[in-house]
Request: fold
Amino acid sequence: MSMFSEVPVRDGAVLRARGAYAGHAWLRLADALWRARRIPLLCMTVGAGLGLALWLALPPVYNARAQIMIADGARQDRLLGGLLESEVAIAQSVPVLSKVAGRLNLYRDPVFARTGFLARIFRHDRDESAAAARVMGRLRRMISVHVHGGTSIIDMDARAADPARAAQIANALLASYQERKVDERFEQSRQIGAWMGKRLESIKAEGDSARQALGDIRVAHVRLAPGGADLSGARITLLNGDIARTQNDIATLSAQLGAIKKDGGSGPATLVEVLKSPRISALKKSESRLEDELAQMSERYGDLHPKIIAKKAEITRMRRAIVRETQLAVTAIGQNLEAAKAKLSALESQVATIDDNIDFDSRLQEQTRTLESQIAANDRLYADFMMKYQEEMAQSELAGADIRVISMATVPERPDNAVRARLVLLLAAVGFAGGFLFVLSRILLARGFTTADQLEAMTGYPVLAAVPLASARTPDGVHHSVMQNPAAILAESLRGLRISLRLRSEMNNEAGGRLGRRARVIAFTSTLPDEGKTSLAVMLAMIAAKAGERVCVVDCDLRRPSVHKAFRIGNARGLTDYLGERLDIDDAIYRKDPSGVHLLAAKAVPSYSLTLLTSGRMETLIETLREQYDLVILDAPSSLAFVDSRVLARMVDQTLYVVAWNRTRRDTVLAALKPYADMGYAGLSLVLNKVDLDAYCRDSAAGVVYRYGQEGGEDGSLAPA
Reply:
């Protein structure tokens, strides 16, 4: 878990959120980096020293410089910058370097053509192409081409151990670059000339093709003449008039024929339509006269009178004659109608033929005009290209950038130390960056707590002490070192812890704390085993006993009892026997340790641990010991896996939670502390144990206290956090 990881929080709990610490996280990180500044500075010093050693070990290098100026008035300044970069790339290109190698015969120079150590071992890189690549690579590393800051001047530098050789390479590079530019211009002129020649041939071929097509059209259509389209139009106008008249006749005949067929050829309408025939008109008049006579005779004679019968017979013959004439007229109308339709068809055919001829002639004329325009355009384009081609061929070189040689390279008199100085600075910067990244990664990737301030800020519980790792080991064990060396920093930190417990107890009394009494019963617990809680409890007990207090240590870890091992006694009788009502309290306590500490050992009974610790005899035991001793220390099991320590927390005055320095993961500690926060337990304090003094002095402001004691000629103490 990193320094900035999230911390789960339940509302109302004492345990703080990440926000309580993250508000100043960057300031704390900067402070930690500043305290560890010696590591980056040391790495920077080592890098600079290595650079200086290389400075002295490497042979001197001489730098020769040739300069040219690129001038192009036709280009703007921003375009000139791109031109300069292009020229720099050309000067360092393979063709130019190949010319340099050939001009100076570098392929036979042992400095350039020698085979590398690895190549000799693996027997490769011996063909000509590989040798040439080797020469080119070494030459490329020896030269440097760049724009002279903010100007149109290009510097061509060459570095070599031999000053004369450096000047030769720089001048050869300049000459090869100029030769390359001449070759480039010649090649451009040749390519442009070839392209323009091909283009002229293409234009000429297009014009010849258009002329040939125009001639073919004029030969194939001799009849095509100006005004032909107007004559055809007049003829079409006449034919359209005939068509209109014929269509009118057809309409008239069709109407007459339709009327006759509709009336059956005998009605009044039919007679009216056919009266235009003189024969029918005469017969009709005769019929009218006979009908008048019949009417007059009918007034005098009856219907059966011979004259009446004769007159009716005459009228009947007259009507039959009219019918015959009418049928003849209808036949004539039909014949006239067919003739009119045939005439109309012939006229329309003539008009269509003339229209086709007009369209064909129009297309021919349009094609002719297109070909004539194309021929004229090709002639103009051919003339323009011919003029341009002649101009290009007449020029000796293309218009381009003007390259002027400012100075040739001379043999340098003094070696160039800029490269070696840059090497020293680079190695120093790399060393500093490496040291900085090392410190930063160590801070950000640290899995545990490294300072009391950090532990207190992330958990929200007070840290009473930071106890250093015990380094002195005595024949009696590390626990007795505080008795044999009472002036050590370890002993002083334990005395500070004892004082902090007393002060915290007095503050609780003033604030109406637990029963308003002095804290006599202290429980020790931790997140995981092996964090040093048992050793810390025993050493605190010995420090208090040496100060004249009556102290009793009770081993309440009924799962993994270990207090008796610290005192190097057995655990045949003790707390388990008392809680099981097999011994009285006076018989269970061991009182013979030279330190003056009394001990109530225990046997391992993991199955009955909670049952025994929650019994009434356990509470009675604590109250009895409270009355008999000034300080009662309970060594409880670890808190992450078991609830025994939380059960004991309700019976004691204070609980000291031991956290191993830079070992126990932060998320694990926070997870183990969360149940205490959830149950609202406020009697919890933290102790940072097994602290590395050197690292702690760098990471914490409390390191000043250590240095003060050491500079004074005696072991210092660590003040409470």
In short: The two ends are 23 Å apart (CA to CA). Residues 217 and 258 are 55 Å apart (CA to CA). The first strand starts at residue 62 and ends at 71. DSSP finds 27 helices and eleven strands in the chain.
